[in-house]
Amino acid sequence: MRHIAFAALAICASGAAAQARQIPGRDLLSFPIGLAAEAAPLSDQAGAGLWNPATALLPGGARWRVSAIAMNSSADDIGVSAQGLAIGHAVNGTSIGITVARVQVANLTRTDADPLSIGSELSYSTLVVSALAARRFTSHVTAGVALRRREGRLDNVTSAGITGDVGVLVEHLGFRDARIGASTFLFSPGAGSRERTSYLVGGDVRVVGPDSGHAVRVGYALEAAAGLSSEHYLFAAARWDRWEARGGPVRTEVFGGSNVRVRLGLALHHHGYAFGVAREESAGGLAPTYQFSLTSVRP
User: Fold this and answer.
1) Cα dihedral across residues 109, 228, 232, 210: positive or negative
2) CB 148 within 8 A of CB 46
3) What is the arithmetic mean of pLDDT over 17-27?
4) Are 11 and 122 spatial neighbours (Cβ–Cβ below 8 Å)?
5) Is the predicted pLDDT of residue 11 greater than 50, yes or no?
6) What does each C-alpha distance from 84 to 8, 23, 62, 73, 234 come to in angstroms?
7) 35, 172, 204, 283 — which has fewest CB within 10 A?
8) How confident is the model at residue 254 (pLDDT cuts 50, 70, 90)?
């Protein structure tokens, strides 16, 4: 069934791409790439700025940050995987960087009226390369911009396009240390746009604990892409010194249907390194996905 579902998805995507000249593989970016159970508009552990360019800002006193991210599904037949690399550098108060992320589907075979393979594997993937800049303008407000090139491939069809995104992160609000983040993803305005833009917004507050290193936070995040999908994430995060646990229920609405699942993650912070792992059930009966990230911050 999964072979048929993916093949049908690829065929529909091919038809849509031909009619609207959209770049293939946009739906692959619905996976939480590089997020160890973080809310996308607030995600700062990897500092990749993939979902919100403002989160690419390096912490005070740091000059370099390098992050590697990966995602894999546990399926033996059809599987989705992703890899990414992010490099950031601080120059006169501005953090600049580059992020490369690739997502692909493996073992996607051609089918006709039955599930038997009738040919070679279908190639279905997308590659996003982002150049980013982020800067803190006040003690509360950080803003960032990103210029992205996304390439998508479906079988023997390959196309690419350029988009630009903006993001803002507002922190340390009130005695509850509230945070609010908002951004665009693959923003490409105009009636002839070849991309479907996502709009992200989210926030959290500290409900227990004296400071950010010893606290429990709760929050909510929304990601909506017109004509594609929407995701609602109600989450909690608890940190005590080096250890941090995150998670909560996720509701996804796509193609008129909905799915509710659980996202769980764990992070370890130690001597300038941060390691994160996460697990999430997938929609549509697909295998769970596992996230991994490793970040190094240096003066």
Assistant:
1) positive
2) no
3) 71
4) no
5) no
6) 27, 20, 21, 16, 26
7) 172
8) confident
